[in-house]
Description:
This protein is α+β, with helices and mostly antiparallel strands. The chain is built from five helices and ten strands, in the order H-E-E-E-H-E-E-E-H-E-H-E-H-E-E.
Amino acid sequence: MIVAMNFLAQARMVYRAIEPCMDRVEFPLRVGDIGDKSLVMSPAAAPRWRNERACQDRVNTGGTFSASLTGACCELEESLMAERTDELARDATWCEEEQEVGRSEIRQTAATTAITVRHNFESAHRLPQLGGKCQNLHGHSWWVEATVAGEAGTDGIVVEFHDLKSYLREWIDGNLDHGAMLGSEDELVPALKAADSKVFLFGEADPSFGLSWPTVENVAELLTRVTAGYIRSRGWPGVRVSRVVVRETHVNAAEVSW
Ligand SMILES: [Zn+2]
């Protein structure tokens, strides 16, 4: 049974690798081979590894990764694995041949890797449509986290960190930092513009078209559009915005994700 146990440890590693992008994985997923036999993970079986102890081997989710079937992997809780063997057998097919296994190459068909860039800016806004204290012009120290995901290329990267970070920082600094974010129908707009004060209008034109007021939710949507537009302009294949978080205070944040 030692071979089957090794395969289960390997399956746990695979699950950890694909968990962030489970919706994009094509099942059944081939986990590994011994000789001409394969272990295949089905969608029903995959979540059962969610809470299992993970193997500490390094996993490159960008495409091909190696899993050691000896050493640390084999030292996983064998008793637990033995208990689960029957259960897992219903959903996974593995080689039952007992043979010595060294290293095995596992190829993922739809692995993605997410990278995140951060930036902060100082900006005023107000929300007159809500009344209360939010209708007063006030400022926040905003924080942005933009995450993009895709399959790492042969160069080992999803996108050029420097390029993405530079673009977002320049866009934010140029358009939002040390300015005021206001709805295009806000009464304060003419006065601030007359005073030559920096104003970014919401709701009037791309990329804020349809986002009437500068709520934290709409700022997150705005920066999602900006990030997505840059990705499109670069033509990075298979790369998409997966998550944008904007914080206006330590306790208020909005997240756009999919
Ligand atoms: Zn505010």
